[in-house]
Amino acid sequence: YPTMEGPVSSNRSWSVIRLFQCIKGPRLRRLYYMGRNTEGTVYSPNKLERYADNVILAAYLLFSCAYHVTPVYFIYYVIRYGIPSFTGVFTTLRGLSVIPVLSVSLAYIFRGIGRYGNDSYNEFLVSLNSARNLRTRIGPIEARATGINKYDFEMFPYPLSFRHDESTVKPRRLSSSRSRGIIERLISLPMTSVRYVAAHLIGRRAIYPGSLAVFNMLLSDPLTIGRAKLRREHNGHRDKLLSCDGNHIDCVFVDKRGSPDTHARGNKLVICCEGNAAYYEVGIMEIPLSVGFSVLGWN
Predict the structure, then answer these.
(1) N or C terminus of the chain: which is more exposed, having fewer CB within 10 Å?
(2) Average pLDDT in the 25-36 region?
(3) Distance between CA atoms of 3 and 21, rounded to whole angstroms?
(4) What is the rounded average pLDDT for all residues in the chain?
């Protein structure tokens, strides 16, 4: 018995780790098992994963709506009834949040259990862990070596392909504004607070509507098909970049270099900057690609 405890305990620990990875893992959208330039097949989750994922998406939509509506309702409530007590606000929030939090937590657990029983998702996790364990940046060669290029999935766990501090080109320094004194800061504090709230609740989403959950949910399938088309027709490679302000940029690179002629179109890179509510999967990339340029698309 002592000789068997070690392997059994190790297997149980590995099962718990894998289940935890399934719970917090990304959504898998497409499988490219038949080679790099094929369109692949849509990932098919089992019933448990699909139903739990629908609950999570619905909860995320409700939270997003509540996030935008609550400040407006709070202002209306203050104007109509006055400032509520802290105890009343805490009691209301506690009563409204117990059932949603419990439901979403159970949905995440059930979704993880469903993924745990899906061989395709477990194979995907093996490739993802191999890619994340590499000490180098993930390029086309590393993606093929780890097998991560066989899958289309949510971008947040994808390893970095490039960091801004690895560039030999240094950004130009901008002149800093005049520093203000303490009195000036105190006087401008109310307007600064109003501007901050307006910018983060309304302004950012008005300027970047593509960041809204509703947009991403409605366009999820067309975007996946667009990435498959770029992969099939142009051998496009999806990458993740880290900008100097700490943002992660999802982009795709189509490399058409190879001609010894330095003036060949494939040796020139066209960077396609999509609009605020546009996506590179269905955007302007097709124009330079149709005439043979190498293209980097991002939004």
Answers:
(1) N
(2) 79
(3) 29
(4) 82
